[in-house]
Amino acid sequence: MISNIHVDNYINAYENGEILLNKERIELIHYIKTYVLTRDDIYFDEQKINNYISFSERWYFSLDNWEKFIAPFIFLYYKEDDELFYEEFFITLGRGGGKNGFISTLSNFFIGPLHGIKNYDVSVVANSEEQAKVSFREVFNTIDGNEKLEEYFDPWKAQIIGKATNSVFKYQTSNAKTKDGGREGCVIYDETHEYEDRQIIDVFSGGLGKVPNPREFFIGTNGFVRAGFYDKLEERCKAVLSGENLEDHIFPFICKLDSADEVNDVANWEKANPAFEKPLSPRSKRLFNKVKKQFDALKNNPAGRPAFMTKRMNLPEVDLEKVVAPWEEILATNRAMPNLKNKACIGGFDYASIKDFAAVGLLFRVGEDYIWKTHSFARKEYLDIANLKPPIKEWEEQGLLTIVDEPSIDPRHVVNWFVEMRKEYGIQKVIGDNFRMDLMRPLFEAEGFELEIVRNPRAAHSLLAPRIETMFANNRIIFGDNPLMRWYTNNVAVKIKPDGNKEYLKKDEHRRKTDGFQAFVHALWRADEVDTVDYSEALDFLNAIDF
C-alpha cells in the first residue's frame, strides 16, 4: 500500500461530501484505490512532490486541491528502476479552471534544479502561436526581473533556459509538416480538442525517451471537432477507468457535467470545473460570477447554448435542429456488418463534385436495420491543395477510399465499383441525382443497370428527413467501423426552410465533405423497394458467364 497526503485529502473530501465529482472522477478514485494505491512496487517521491508544490506556491499562486491531487501521480515511480508509473496525463475541464497556470508551474519546475534532470527540455504545443505562448509568457514574466529566479533561469523571448540542468522551455505550433521530433523530456499539448488526428503527437512523441522520465500532458477543454484526437483519447481513458485496460498507464482527470440538464443547478458546475469546489478562492469567485452572467444571458440568446455547454461545462451539445443526429447516435452506427452476400440492395452514388470527392454505396435491409456499404474516390491534386485535417491516407489504407491521380474523377470508377459489387450482391437499381447524368447514364445502361434519377434532391431531403432522424435515434443504421462515413455524416448541416422542411447542406463548402451521406440519402429514396430475394443462383450463373 502507498499513500500521499494530497491524494488522501482529495479522496476524503469526495467521500465526506465536501466536493461534488462527475462520473469519470468518481471512477478515477475507484480505479486509484483499487489498482494503484494497493501496489507495493511503486512509490511517491515525496521530496519532488513537496518541492513542486512549494516552488509553485512561492513563485506563482496557491495550487487548487485538484492540482495538488494530480501532482503526486506526476512523481510516482517504480521501485525497481525509478522509471515513471505514469508518462501520460489527460486533463480536461471547463474553460477558466486554471489549466494554463498548471502548465506554467509544471514547465518552470521541470527545467529547474529542484527537478534536477539534465537536458530535460519542455515544449508547449498548441494550434496557434498565441495559444502556445500563454503559459510561456507567464513563466517569462515571472522570471524576468526577479533576481532570485534569474540565478537559476535565463529568460529569452523564444525560450527559457534552466541554467543548472541546461534544460529549455519553449513554445511550438502544431503544424506537423514543419516539425521534427526533438529531444524533449516533456511535451504539453494544449487545446487538444482542435487536433483532427494524432499526427503532431507522433512527431513530438518520437523525440521522447532520450532523457529520463519522459512525460506527455494532453490538456484542454472539449470542442466541436468530432472523431478527432480528443474523442479517441477520451475513449482510451474510459477503458482505463472501467478496468478494461489496466496496462495502459495514462492518468485521466476528466471534469464535465454528467448530463445536460445538470447545468440548470449551479451547484453542479463544479463537476465540470474544479475551480468551483468549495471553498471558492477570490479568483474562483470572479470566474463563477462571469460564468453565471453568461448562463443567464442564454435566456435572451439561446443560440449561444452549444458554445456555453461545450466550453464552460465541458459537455458538447449541438443544436439538434442543425445536425443530422447527435454524435452519440452517429457513433452508434459502428456495428458489425451482417453477412450480406447475395442479398438484395439499392445502389446510391454522389458524383456532383468530380474535382474532389465522389461516393458510392449499397443499401441493404436486414430486419429493421439499414446497412450501408460504401466506398469513396478522392482526387490526389485536390487533397494536396486542400490539406484536409482528417487522416485521409489512413482511411485509404483501411480500404475506405481510393485516391486517383487524374484531372477529374473518371465516372468509370463509379460504374466499375457497382459492376464489381454485382458479383456478390443483388443490385436492384442504382440511384443518383441529376448532376452529371449526361455522363453517367450511358455508362450505367451499357452495363445493364437500372438507373433512377432523383430530379429534385431538395424535395427528397424534406421527405426523407423524418425517416433519417428516426433511424439514427433508434440505432437502426449500420455503417460498420467506417470513420470516413461518420465524418461525412457529421459534416452535414441541416437547413430548416421557412415552410418547415429540411435540406441537407455542408457545414463548410470546402473542408467538410458530405458525398458519402448524400449517396446514402439517394439510396434511401427507394429503401422500401429492397426485397428479400436470395440471388445466390442468379449470381452464380452470371459469374460463370465470360462477358
Automatic annotation (TrEMBL):
Coiled-coil segments, which residues?
none
Q: Can you say what this protein is called?
A: Terminase large subunit
Q: Where is the Terminase large subunit-like endonuclease domain?
A: 247-529
Terminase large subunit-like ATPase domain mapped to chain residues = 66-237
Please give the organism. Listeria newyorkensis
Q: Which GO terms describe its molecular function?
A: endonuclease activity
Quote the InterPro entries the UniProt record gives: P-loop_NTPase, TerL_ATPase, TerL_nuclease, Terminase_largesu-like
Query: Which superkingdom heads the taxonomic lineage of this protein's source?
Result: Bacteria
